[in-house]
TrEMBL record:
Function: Catalyzes the ATP-dependent amidation of deamido-NAD to form NAD. Uses L-glutamine as a nitrogen source.
CDD domains: GAT_Gln-NAD-synth (cd07570), NAD_synthase (cd00553)
Organism expressing this protein natively: Chloroflexus islandicus
Listed InterPro entries: C-N_Hydrolase, C-N_Hydrolase_sf, Gln-dep_NAD_synthase, NAD+_synth_C, NAD/GMP_synthase, NAD_synthase, Rossmann-like_a/b/a_fold
Source taxonomy: Bacteria, Bacillati, Chloroflexota, Chloroflexia, Chloroflexales
Protein's name according to its UniProt entry: Glutamine-dependent NAD(+) synthetase
Length: 690
């Protein structure tokens, strides 16, 4: 983290801007190639990139064949390298260029690292392809055949080897390794070892000719290598100008990060190209830290890793504020409809599968569920009905109860009945007001005598009476209670502990975030599996405002809920965003705010998940983002862990994480939120002043 940078700067938040360039080349014309390399390097550095990767043998061109053995060409290459090195003195960037270099009486296919006017290191190719269309062993020696670990070039002696890692002390987390094309095609690429030794940015200078289907293969290799090494993987394949005597070239550039594709060039392009992405170095370090098997692999290769050499670069972190990276507004809900449907299919089936297994092992054929007419109990009811279908049991074995209280609106009550009828479950209604009043009177609470005192006790008495009824109904009917509370509510502690909706025998929604629930219901509607009437009710439920309906509406409020959940705990859209980045990656609050600002600050651009109501498609300014993030931090870290520590069983649905103490999230119930609140309060003070 660069503490001295303003909040808006990407380098303050652990990002680094990296670029891959595909210049035009001329075969055996190093002077021209150097000029194009310098031009693109200047453009990339002017855009804030601190690293610019170029293709394999780009200074000579890759497709020189036996021209590589001509002294005039090799002299011209060295001259060009010296020129590019000199030009790098005015750029705040590490340049990685490809060239054939003479060394120890042989020729090596090299990646040359240039920074601040100097050649800082040279990496020879480890694996020379010599099969099918490739003849590299005819011209080059491999890294392992070098005698010395330094090379003399352009009057300098510099480190030489496949074991070099470049670090920039001013950009924490930036540690760069370089390999060359075929190196990635091998079972154990050099970059794998570099990653274990700490390299976070793995670069590949390539001259991969194109054939049908090969682009997909390269993409899979790069994305796979970035995932396996928990690193960024940058790839630059030669294009425009390479010889088409027998082959063709597509100029394929890629930037991947831990399995995600961040940027890709346009292939077969007639123009030179630069692709740029802001790589999240902190995310990579966070994931390596939590994936402890990564560390086990380090132990296996300790001797080899210890021998790797580190070279410090005099780079500075530039101030860059236009984040070049997609930040999804809904981290739990993909925008792409096909991907979203796939996720919904998985989530829904995981929920159904979880409940089926629990019913089998508990030897019960019935479930009890409270149906409010809200989103969560609707989804849980659909899952319960589906579980009965799969078990070959009648849907009437779902014992569904709607239990109106003091604040139940006619809309949710009507929807609850219509839904139970449409699904063909056993539908019942229990008025909880008499038992709730009894309890309020027993407590000596004024509401027991009709006084309008609507405090937390008043709310929890109703939630408690419902839960108490459901558990005793389960005893009576030899059934289990299906829980309905979702992940977002658990994160915020927005549920009534113990004898309340926090408890169930099995909670199918426990790891489903609120922002996903509505899409699960939409997915079920689209599938048509529940019929037209059910679909009509489901559509109405989707359109109902979220409320716990525990506080009565006033006389003139038109039967609308007095308690609007999102006015109290914040918009679920923002709280799910906060939840994801804080629990999945452990980011500090200011970084979450920075990401939220990019995702939610300007909503005129970027995609929305289809079907999302217009009212939910709104922007949030930075003060609003910070306000609700602070609410999240206080509720999540300070007051609600005890509710999660005692949460019932339920299946983990998403890779984003669950909050079960037996799963993704173990935390003490008596921790303090002080460090998180202090961090965000410093930021609030800072942006106010700014
Ligand atoms: N660390 C800790 N370890 C053990 N116990 C701890 C504790 N911190 C507080 N407590 C105790 O826990 C109690 C507070 O927890 P709790 O009884 O749950 O009550 P509380 O969290 O204060 O209230 C529940 C809230 O959830 C809302 N709610 C309820 C039901 C459904 C929904 C919905 O929309 O889905 C929302 C409701 O509107 C209300 O604001 C207090 O008695 C407190 O002393
Ligand atoms: N009127 C009601 N009838 C039956 N059960 C209810 C009723 N109100 C709440 N519940 C039960 O308590 C759970 C929590 O209720 P609440 O409405 O406060 O929050 P919610 O998380 O928004 O749930 P939902 O979306 O299902 O309404 C519900 O899922 C449901 O199981
Ligand atoms: N230049 C290279 O090393 C090319 C080899 C690589 N296997 C490819 O086909 O793209």
């Amino acid at each position: 983290m660069n503490h001295t940078h303003p909040f808006q700067s990407i380098y303050r938040h652990g990002f680094a801007r990296l670029a891959v360039a595909i210049p035009a080349v001329r075969i055996a014309e190093p002077a021209f190639n150097a000029e194009r390399t310098i031009a693109l390097a200047r453009r990339a550095a002017a855009a804030g990139a601190v690293l610019v990767l170029f293709p394999e043998l780009g200074i000579s061109a890759y497709s020189n064949d036996d021209l590589f053995q001509q002294t005039a060409l090799l002299d011209a290459v060295e001259q060009a390298v010296a020129e590019i090195a000199a030009a790098s003195s005015e750029l705040n960037a590490l340049l990685l260029i490809g060239a054939p270099l003479r060394h120890e009486g042989r020729l090596f296919n090299c990646a040359i690292a240039l920074c601040n006017g100097h050649i800082v290191g040279v990496t020879p190719k480890s694996y020379l392809p010599n099969y099918r269309e490739f003849y590299e062993k005819r011209h080059f020696a491999a890294a392992r055949d070098a005698i010395n670990d330094t090379i003399r070039i352009a009057g300098q002696t510099v480190p030489f080897g496949a074991d070099l890692i470049y670090e920039a002390p001013a950009i924490p987390g930036l540690a760069v390794h370089v390999e060359i094309c075929e190196d990635l095609w091998t079972p154990l690429p050099p970059s794998t070892f570099a990653a274990l030794a700490g390299a976070t940015v793995l670069c590949n200078l390539s001259a991969s000719n194109i054939t049908i289907g090969k682009a997909d293969y390269r993409r899979a290799l790069c994305m796979g290598q970035s995932a396996r090494t928990i690193a960024a993987y940058l790839y630059s394949a030669a294009g425009l100008g390479e010889s088409t005597t027998d082959l063709a070239w597509d100029g394929h550039a890629l930037i991947c990060e831990n399995g995600d594709l961040l940027a890709e060039s346009q292939r077969f392009c007639d123009e030179e190209q630069i692709i740029v992405a802001d790589v999240d170095l902190e995310r990579l370090q966070q994931d390596r830290m939590r994936q402890t098997s990564f560390s086990d692999s380090i132990g296996d290769y300790r001797e080899r890793l210890r021998a790797m050499r580190t070279i410090a670069l005099p780079l500075t972190a530039p101030i860059v504020t236009d984040l070049r990276r997609d930040v999804a507004r809904f981290p739990y809900v993909p925008n792409d409809p096909a991907t979203r449907d796939e996720r919904c299919y998985e989530a829904y089936n995981i929920q159904v599968h979880g409940l089926i297994q629990r019913m089998r092992s508990a030897k019960v054929e019935k479930v009890v569920i409270g149906v409010s007419g809200g989103l969560d109990s609707t989804q849980a009811l659909i899952v319960a009905a589906r579980a009965m279908d799969r078990l070959g049991l009648p849907r009437r074995n779902v014992l569904a109860y709607t239990m109106p209280g003091f604040a139940t609106s006619s809309q949710t009550r009507t929807n609850a009945h219509a839904l139970m009828a449409a699904l063909g479950v056993s539908a019942h209604e229990i008025d909880i007001r008499p038992s709730a009043l009894q309890m309020l009177r027993d407590l000596g609470h004024p509401a027991g005598e009709g006084a309008p005192v609507y405090d937390v006790t008043f709310e929890n008495v109703q939630a408690g009476e419902r839960t108490s009824h459901l558990f005793r109904l389960a005893n009576y009917h030899n059934a289990i209670v299906v829980g309905t509370g979702d992940l977002s509510e658990l994160a915020l502690g927005w549920c009534t502990y113990g004898v309340g909706d926090q408890m169930a025998h099995y909670n199918v929604n426990a790891s489903v975030p609120k922002t996903l629930i509505q899409h699960l219901i939409r997915y079920v509607i689209r599938s048509g599996e529940l019929g037209e009437e059910a679909n009509r009710v489901l559509a109405d439920i989707l359109a109902t405002e979220i409320s716990p309906e525990l506080v009565p509406a006033t006389a003139n409020s038109d039967d609308k809920p007095a308690q609007r959940t999102e006015e109290i705990i914040g918009p679920y859209a923002l709280q799910d965003f906060n939840l994801y980045y804080i629990t999945r990656y452990g980011f500090r609050p200011s970084k979450v705010a920075f990401l939220a600002m990019h995702a939610w600050g300007d909503t005129s651009a970027g995609a929305w998940p289809e079907g999302l109501p217009a009212a939910d498609r709104r922007a949030y300014d930075l003060p609003t983002i910070l306000h609700w993030l602070r609410v999240f931090l206080y509720r999540f870290f300070q007051i609600s862990q005890f509710k999660r520590s005692a949460m019932p069983n339920g299946p983990k649905v998403g890779s984003g994480g669950a909050l079960s103490p037996r799963g993704d999230w173990r935390a003490p119930s008596d921790a303090s939120a002080a460090v998180w609140l202090a961090e965000i309060d410093r930021l609030i003070a800072e942006v106010d002043v700014g």
